Amino acid sequence: MTIPVFPPTYTKLDLIVHHLRTEGYSVLAPTDLLAFGQCELAELEALKTSWNELPPDHFLKDGGHYRRRRHSSFVVDGTAMAQVPHRAHYQPLAYNALHGGMHRLFEPISAEDIKQPVWSRLLLAISKICSQVKTAQPWYVEAHQFRIDTTDGIGRPTPEGAHRDGVDFVAILLVDRVNIKGGESRLFEMAGVNGKRFTLLESWTLIILDDQRVIHETTPIQPAAEGGGHRDTLVLTYRSGGFLEER
Fold first, then answer.
1. Is 244 part of a structural domain of the chain?
2. Residue-wise over 168-180: b if at least 16 C-beta within 10 A, else e?
């Protein structure tokens, strides 16, 4: 069966903030991401190998074996970024009907990755946009490395379905997609009937979402040929006032 593919409409660099304010999301082309993050393509490509070393996600409640991940947390304040002591990832059921209410302690992101200058440049560049859309303040950032593969014949990037993350902003960076079909990004207005659908095909394409205005999901992936395949992403969530914790 042929799965239709709709490419994203890219946002111009000088319109990122405007588009976030008016539409609730922006999509940056890979070439613009380099300028946005003040980085070189080779710096980004050097990060890719660490996705080959992600440990399995043992918290999947649907019984699947299609997800690998790492997780670390940071505070970004102006031009300063600091990693915080390793902590569990938590979401209440209101935001994640499948895995909400769990304290999921994943392996941390490699120190080798975090010490790369491109890492801090990306986090700082996105935080600057967050502050321009809302107001300048410390941002509590959770970073998730994901690999979704077709080990089970199908992989689910968002097994919880269309959702919010309970933060202010979500940034989804496509690192790679290999030998797969599917993986369509779908965005829905929180307070409206409009929706968008498109498929990220090029490595280093970036989506930034206003999590308080937009619900998002990514459709399942399937192998495009024998041998299976995978989809790698870096997901960064930005929250004001502190990390999302159990209350």
1. no
2. bbbbbbbbebebb
- Separation between Cα atoms, residue 32 and residue 9, nearest integer Å: 13
* pLDDT band with cut points at 50, 70 and 90 for residue 100: low
Q: Specify the pairing of strand 180-182 against strand 103-104.
A: unpaired
Domain of 41, CATH number, reads 2.60.120.620
Q: What is the extent of the structural domain holding 45?
A: 13-239
Establish if 6 belongs to a structural domain.
no
133-139: long-range contacts, CB 8 A cutoff, minimum separation 24: 133/17, 133/20, 133/21, 133/169, 133/210, 134/168, 134/240, 136/78, 137/77, 137/240, 138/75, 138/76, 138/77, 138/240, 139/75, 139/76, 139/77, 139/168, 139/238, 139/239, 139/240
pLDDT tens across 73-85, in order? 999 999 999 999 9
Count CB-CB contacts under 10 A for residue 128: 17
pLDDT tens profile 129-186: 999 999 999 999 999 999 999 988 999 999 888 899 999 999 999 999 999 999 999 9
Please state, for a pLDDT cut of 70, what percent of the chain lies above it. Answer: 98
Let me know if residue 83 belongs to a domain: yes
Domain count, the chain: 1
In-domain check, residue 4 = no
CB 173 within 8 A of CB 48: no
